[in-house]
Design goal:
Strand order of the largest sheet: 4-7-8-9-11-10
Helix content: 25-40%
Number of helices: 9
Number of strands: 11
Shape: elongated
Structural class: alpha+beta
Strand content: 15-25%
Largest sheet: 6 strands, mixed
Distance between the termini: 48 Å
Oligomer: single chain
């Protein structure tokens, strides 16, 4: 799990060194996340540190006006016999700004969460020391939906990495609402995305020309004999997980990774491939439709570009807990063919070696026929 998350680029890039790694997966992920944030925060403070930003403040001033006078609140003060209290709104350079509040809250969450780890007290203390530099920043839960990480000013670019890890800590480590009380702690990862990205990154290390989420525009139109005033042209998209162009020795290859069901290795009732039932594979029909449509689209696009191909291999890659023989079906399309293949990714095997084995098997399936 950790290896897949790291390969997918969804776990922090940092050196674990001599840090304690808990026996449970949840505690290990929690420690990785908090320690990565602490290291990134330390680097952020050394690189540029906290920056002031212009904030619009509202404050009650005494016997003076600054910026814009808030007439309604001031008249209420006059009615209460306090005309010297003047509510104003004005811009000011402030260290207590949204960016710094995100980091301060991540410090708070990280400190309390680290205390729940078996050997987390040292990590919590390191974060507490760094948090002393945020004494001028208000401690309150930030609104991550209004994150400004993608709209950083030029002198704030050094915030990017720290904000990314801070948001990961805040959104993934769920802290109870009572002060000092941690109700539950969990790390949230989108396993479908982990599985897909880990496979793609492993394949890219073997096959650098592989591409991910390439968009194919599909044009839809009304029949040619439709009256001119009712003609329509619309478009939609196909987005395969992985696309590997063909070459002089093999067909092009489309790969779609599936995470929701194990191909083999969990239980007889849930596996897609059963030892006792040798006649069927319990695939979702839409998976087969998808694989076939990808292959047909590859052939259609090649012919439309006057670069016809003899065939295409579309692979559905499912997780498994042990090796399973590949299963395939060949569909003849005029002078071309679509080869739909079901492959098992054995998650018990080393990731890079196993993905390399999958690619070798795909190359054999995609090999161009030898002509005499």
């Amino acid at each position: 799990m950790l290896e897949l998350g790291a390969l997918a680029g969804m776990l922090p890039r940092w050196s674990l060194g001599g840090a304690y790694v808990a026996e449970s997966l949840e505690e290990s992920l929690l420690e990785w996340t908090i320690a990565a944030y602490e290291e990134t925060l330390r680097r952020f403070l050394a690189l540029g540190g906290l920056r002031n930003t212009h904030q619009r403040l509202t404050a009650d001033l005494k016997n003076r006006v600054k910026g814009r006078l808030l007439v309604g609140p001031w008249l209420r003060n006059v009615a209460k016999g306090r005309p010297h209290v003047v509510p104003c709104q004005f811009p000011s350079l402030e260290l207590d700004n949204p960016l710094n509040r995100v980091l301060r809250w991540a410090n708070h969450v990280g400190i309390f969460a680290a205390h729940t780890l078996k050997n987390g007290n040292v990590l919590a203390e390191r974060l507490r020391v760094l948090d002393t530099q945020f004494h001028a920043v208000k401690l309150q839960r930030p609104d991550l939906s209004a994150s400004t990480r993608n709209r950083l000013a030029g002198n704030q670019r050094h915030y990017a990495d720290a904000l990314k890890l801070a948001e990961m800590v805040i959104s993934s480590v769920h802290v109870g609402s009572k002060s000092g009380d941690i109700r539950s702690i969990a790390i949230t990862l989108d396993m479908n995305k982990v599985y897909e990205l880990a496979f793609f990154n492993a394949l890219r290390s073997i096959k650098p020309d592989a591409s991910r989420h390439e968009e194919w525009i599909i044009t839809l139109s009304t029949p040619k004999d439709c009256p001119p005033d009712r003609r329509l042209i619309r478009s939609t998209r196909m987005i395969p997980d992985v696309w590997v162009p063909g070459d002089e020795t093999r067909y092009p290859v489309v790969i779609d990774t599936k995470w929701k069901r194990l191909l083999y290795g969990s239980s007889e009732a849930d596996d897609l491939v059963s030892i006792t039932d040798t006649r069927t594979v319990r695939l979702r029909p839409e998976d087969m439709y998808q694989a076939t449509a990808y292959g047909l689209e590859v052939i259609h696009r090649a012919r439309a570009n006057r670069k016809p191909v003899l065939g295409c291999v579309t692979a559905l890659v499912y997780p498994a807990l042990q090796s399973v023989p590949d299963l395939s079906r060949t569909i003849e399309v005029s002078e071309s063919q679509v080869i739909v293949t079901l492959l098992a990714w054995n998650l018990e095997a080393p990731v890079i070696a196993e993905v390399g084995s999958i690619w070798n098997r795909l190359q054999l399936s995609a090999a161009l026929p030898v002509t005499a």
